[in-house]
Specification:
The complex is a heterodimer of chains A (261) and B (337). Chain A has 261 residues and is mostly helical. Chain B is built from 13 helices and no strands. In chain B, α5 runs antiparallel to α6. The radius of gyration of chain B is 24 Å and the shape is globular. The chains are: A mainly alpha (261), B mainly alpha (337).
């Protein structure tokens, strides 16, 4: 948890303030310095257009973290609503909603995202929309399962028996008690969202050039892999560190919030 | 619900899902903003006669429910339309590429499952030992490291720098293989062409390693936690108290029960592998379904996009069905909702 939190805070600091600490103009093309190896002037080297890889990696952090946050929050919210309604009301509502979720889960997540991008067209915004749609199913299933467990508790039955409304019970009893497992899963899935977004950009379906996005940077570095290893190494390292941070935070949250551990 | 009854029920439950998959794939083209044919042509100009012919061929001149009915009929007869780019039947394009993707998936699983299960079980038997640390590190790295980045690093290190492995392709282009099934392994063995088999395996090593990292990580993690739980069960304690040899405790009493969640995890991870296959084939230039789908999306070749997604989705659901049946076979007492 400590290591994960430190990594995450460092990432957020770099993402949102890092560009202020870097020399200006690093993201501008400078063909006289294309494919320069790492040096004092450019610690992570330059790319095929002479742009500083460090500057683009820092700008890419903002893109990746912000996009990942949008994916997770939106899919968590939509999946959560479906899951709570389905798990709380049960019966016909549950059957109908879960059949809809099953239809979403009939497609592998990444391929569903690719199919949505195929409809909407490549681009970062469309990739985010595609991933939101892909992640709704798993979140809905998770929240439904947890809601059913919470609903079976006696305090919920007691609230019913004293005449509390469904809305009151959901707001005061269900939501606070499902928050823990859902928060842990959100943290763990954040890393997956960053990787999937980078994967779509790597294939040319997500962020488009000249956007500084880690997956797009990896894709741009592929043709130069023999002569400019830094173009593919450092953006990939950024992705891995981000995912590790979220895994550590998620595991740490699970340990902290689970009274049995 | 046991045996045959469970299988029949599970197959019947899959049918509406497959029907929805077909409907969703059919709607892929119809959901595109604007005219679907204009979207497919991507600004390319064609004559009025060609326009009319394409609309008729794609059924765009009929009501959507008629189009869907005709399309379903075509799919069930093996007619997935024609690729706009190559003008070849979509089924032929898929038939040429699908075996390569299946071979990649099988090789990756053959790498991941035995290593992952063995590592996980050994880690569980010696908690906090060297193997346990290795298993934990392997699973964390496998989950956190993007497979496409690992692919690029392996390509750089072992292909570009060391020259030990080829940089792209599925087989040495100078080797001729008589194509009977489309699977290089089978065709090489049938024709006795060991050189082709060797070349194919040589080309497959790095892609299989890349694609196996995620299933290896999940399998290791699941095998370890599952084995740890099973070893805490009362019947294992009883067996040890009765003086049963430790090897028998593990292989006869613990292992089979520990493998049930692992089997479920392998089935679940297959979906992740399909996405990984797309990326792996792109990195290593493998002529598989994944690369075909990416090219089709970038070229807006919608009949080909539809065909590829349909095949992937149907395959994914069949794997889930087989996983459920396998779990039922391993543990007939299990109830699956």
């Amino acid at each position: 948890m400590v290591v994960g939190s430190f990594l995450l805070l460092s990432l957020c600091f770099v993402a949102f303030t890092g560009h202020l600490l870097l020399p200006p103009g690093g993201n501008r093309s400078d063909l006289s310095h294309r494919l320069d190896a790492p040096s004092k002037e450019s610690p992570l080297g330059t790319d095929q257009l002479g742009r500083d890889v460090l500057t683009r990696a820092v700008l890419g952090a903002k893109t990746s973290l912000a996009s990942g946050a949008v994916v997770i929050l939106l899919s968590g919210l939509l999946g959560g609503i479906v899951g709570v309604v389905s798990g709380y009301f049960g019966r016909a509502t549950d059957s109908i909603l879960m059949r809809c979720v099953d239809f979403l889960l009939a497609f592998p997540t990444f391929l569903l995202a690719m199919a949505v991008v195929a409809i909407l067209g490549p681009g970062l915004r469309n990739a985010i929309i595609a991933l939101v749609i892909s992640y709704i199913g798993p979140f809905a299933r998770l929240v439904r399962g947890v809601t059913i467990k919470v609903k079976a508790n006696e305090y919920v039955e007691a609230a019913h028996s004293i005449g509390a409304s469904d809305l009151h019970i959901v707001a005061r009893h269900v939501l606070p008690n499902i928050l823990t497992p859902v928060t842990v899963q959100l943290a763990l899935c954040f890393g997956a969202a960053i990787v999937d977004l980078a994967g779509l950009s790597f294939l040319g379906l997500g962020a488009q050039p000249p956007s500084p996005e880690w997956g797009a940077m990896l894709s741009a570095g592929r043709p130069y892999i023999a002569t400019a290893w830094w173009m593919t190494t450092f953006p990939g390292l950024c992705i891995m560190v981000s995912v590790l941070a979220f895994i550590f935070v998620g595991d740490g949250l699970r340990d902290v919030m689970d009274p049995r551990r | 619900m046991r045996g045959r009854g469970f299988i029949i029920k599970r197959v019947l439950l899959m049918l509406p899902v497959l029907f929805f998959v077909m409907f969703a794939v059919f709607m892929t083209v119809r959901l595109i903003p604007g005219d679907p044919l204009d979207a497919m042509l991507g600004g390319r100009r064609i004559s009025e006669a060609a326009d009319a012919e394409m609309r008729s061929q794609l059924g765009l001149d009929k009501p959507w429910y008629t189009q869907f009915w005709v399309w379903c009929g075509g799919v069930l007869h093996g007619d997935l339309g024609r690729s706009i780019m190559s003008r070849r039947p979509v089924l032929d394009e898929i038939a040429a590429k699908l075996p390569h993707t299946l071979e990649l998936l099988v090789f990756s699983l053959l790498l991941a499952v035995p290593i992952g299960v063995s590592l996980g079980i050994l880690a569980a038997l010696r908690p906090r030992g060297a193997v346990d640390l290795l298993a934990t590190a392997a699973s964390v790295i496998g989950i956190s490291m993007p497979a496409f980045w690992l692919g690029l690093l392996l390509l750089l290190t072992f292909s570009v720098r060391a020259g030990w492995f080829p940089t792209s392709g599925i087989i040495d282009p100078q080797i001729d293989v008589v194509q009977r099934t489309g699977f290089y392994v089978i065709d090489s063995l049938i024709s006795g062409n060991m050189r082709a088999l060797g070349s194919f395996l040589h080309h497959m090593i790095l892609p299989a390693i890349v694609l196996s990292t995620v299933p290896l990580a999940y399998t290791t993690r699941m095998a370890r936690s599952s084995m740890v739980e099973v070893l805490r069960e009362a019947y294992v304690t009883t067996a040890r108290a009765k003086g049963v040899h430790e090897r028998s405790v593990i292989t006869i009493h613990a292992l089979r029960n520990a493998l049930i969640p692992v089997t479920i995890a392998i089935g679940a991870v297959t979906g992740l592998m399909l996405g990984g296959a797309v990326l792996t084939e792109t990195i290593f230039g493998l002529p598989g379904m994944g690369r075909l789908l990416v090219d089709a999306i970038l070229q807006r070749d919608f009949p080909l996009i539809q065909g590829c997604i349909l095949v992937f989705a149907v395959g994914y659901n069949i794997v889930n069905l087989l996983t459920d049946i396998l779990c039922q076979w391993i543990d007939p007492k299990a109830r699956y909702g």
